[in-house]
Amino acid sequence: MRYRSTRGELTANAPNFSDILLAGLAGDGGLYMPETWPKISAQTLREWRSLSYPDLAAEVMAPFTAGAIDRDTLRGMCRDAYAGFDHAAVAPLCEVEEGLFALELFHGPTLAFKDMAMQLLGRLFDHVLTERNRHVTIVGATSGDTGSAAIEACRGRDRLSVVILHPKGRTSDVQRRQMTTILDENILNIAVEGDFDTCQDLVKGMFADKEFRDEVSLSAVNSINWARIAAQIPYYVRAALALGAPDREVSFAVPTGNFGNVLAAWAARQMGLPIKRLCVGSNRNDILTRFLLDNDMSMRAVEPSLSPSMDIQVSSNFERLLFEMLDRNPTRCAAIMREFRETGRMAVPHDAWTRMKEVFDGMTLDDTQTSVAMREFYSESLYLADPHTAIGLAAGKRFKEAGIPMVAAATAHPAKFPDAVFAATGIRAELPPHLADLFEREERYTTMSSEISGLQAAVRAHIRRN
Ligand SMILES: *Cc1c(COP(=O)(O)O)cnc(C)c1O
């Protein structure tokens, strides 16, 4: 499989999976997309019903890694990646109400769905870097979940140095401790005096400094990396198979921020999975719902909410869907993205918008509605949902159709957001055994100002120590 940018034509020496894994973003600023969509036949889907989760993941992903990583190696990595999950099914389905299911994606080490892709990504990086005899430095900014998942996936790996910036005092205590109590030598946590945007700007600044970027071999594991999307497709296939696919349709509801998770569901649909509708759940940062309602994709200031992992205005992965809805025309896609950056408003052509609406629905819940949803799912079904999951379930409930199972992505464990869960339900969610002593563990992190040269010096020193 070869890859192309959403802003450029397929080139003669187009990159393969290993190349785009290390590169992340395309050179022209676009996002990588597979050259074609692999198709899964109904017969193949039936055969996959009996596979374990890791083996199914390898089958689903194999066409994307073709020509770069062979199937047996990939299967080995998948088995290893999901062995540490604390549920035998890896991503179990739980029926919350008749016809409404929670697909629990939070049974990995850091209790959020990011582990589903990141645990595999750490192993893929290791494999490709060993093959190429290289070392890279992963630098990332986090508002909480991505950082901990990346650190957990990359800890102790010789060929990776990891530097994660988090906004000082602005992540939850659980989120911070999940990062700062990992004491492996290749991990450096930096608390930045500023907010999440400050952290993200610093990371962008480091990538923009070409000399520095080459000197330390910068790389990224943020959600625009195609490998992460690819690793999120298998659980949609698994859930649909469990509910009767290919002989019955299924719909999904996904609490959405950067549009990566729901895009993976859309990719599964492209590959032949019988998905009827995709429902996007948002918090008060509702750019996507406004878009689906009125074709109004205009940026506003980000406001904090009970579901911080969705406090986002620009959903980077939306560009991939836009590209498809423009019939893969990179020139039009690049022009629309350029205008969006300049004006803060994305002018999506009416026919592209109409085509998106044929599949997508959107629903917004503010903090009060989110708390009410948490309370009701608990009192009516004894299902304890974190704020993100509650938004997904509420969106699923709203758009559920008779006879078609609706599956909501449960993206975080309730214990990851204990205060919001307690305020809504009166229940204290307990951390699972492997994190029970989180608050007794030693923390290690450096506090720094938002000055980029100091930060670059810290990255260099960290690599020398490694
Ligand atoms: C990252 C995250 C989301 C948003 O997922 P996207 O792929 O960015 O849309 C939702 N819920 C939780 C708990 C997350 O960590």
List keywords for this structure.
binds pyridoxal-5'-phosphate, alpha/beta, about 475 residues, Rossmann fold, six-stranded mixed β-sheet, EC 4.2.3.1, five-stranded parallel β-sheet, 15 strands, threonine synthase activity
Give a brief rundown of this model.
This is Threonine synthase. With 466 residues, the protein is of the alpha/beta class.
Description:
Helix 5 (114-132) packs across helix 6, helix 16 (367-381) crosses helix 17 (387-399) and helix 16 (367-381) packs across helix 18 (418-425). The strands form four sheets. The protein has a six-stranded mixed sheet. It has a five-stranded parallel sheet with strand order 8-5-6-7-15, with helices on both faces. A two-stranded antiparallel ribbon has the order 1-2. The radius of gyration is 21 Å and the shape is globular. The protein has a domain at 90-108 and 226-425: Rossmann fold (3-Layer(aba) Sandwich), CATH 3.40.50.1100. The protein starts with a strand and ends with a helix. It has helices at residues 17-23, 42-48, 53-65, 71-83, 114-132, 145-154, 173-180, 196-208, 210-216, 226-242, 260-270, 287-294, 318-325, 330-343, 350-357, 367-381, 387-399, 418-425, 452-465; strands at residues 3-5, 32-34, 93-97, 100-104, 136-141, 160-167, 187-192, 218-219, 250-255, 275-282, 297-298, 345-346, 360-364, 406-410, 446-448. It contains 19 helices and 15 strands. The longest helix is centred in the N-terminal third of the chain and has 19 residues, at 114-132. It has 466 residues and is α/β, with parallel strands linked by helices.
